[in-house]
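Fold these two proteins, one after the other.
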Amino acid sequence: MKRGKCKGDGPEGSPTPVPANPRRREFVMHNKAPMWNENSQVYQLDFGGRVTQESAKNFQIEFRGKQVMQFGRIDGNAYTLDFQYPFSALQAFAVALANVTQRLK
């Protein structure tokens, strides 16, 4: 990796400069679109039995056409969170928490 020079960059342990072109990985994901249920006249997502109550907070995220995260209400104030790569546990929890707190306003 190439290093750029910064003021004070020397052998005395001065700060290391930030690389000019750090490697970044970008993941483009999207919310899965719900399907229209003609019988009940509502939009629905299939949670495979993991989510048992309707809520505006329920969601699913897709990455490259594959579902990688789902979050939904299972009881009163209880929710379930399922995730896989490319999410870590911390990232998945942060997304779910942001979704819940955004809708509390």
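Now the second one:
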Amino acid sequence: SQDLMQDSSLVFMNSDPLNDFPKMTSSRVIDIGGITVHAGHSDLDQYWSSLLNLRNRTIFISFGTETIRATAGKFPNVTFIWKYEV
């Protein structure tokens, strides 16, 4: 496979750089992550739909610190969804 890489002008990788681990790469490597994701989806239920329509923007946070509260307070026109474990 290394010989194949050396002889190729471009290499397409099925990886998503936003969700993948950091790695060394080359300008010849093109990430095309998500090509296997199905396009179909179902509508949101009433609870989530109304929550997401409260403001023009929504941010989902899946971790927690006191800094997040202070930061969220600076954006009154944004709905923050903060996931936490009890």
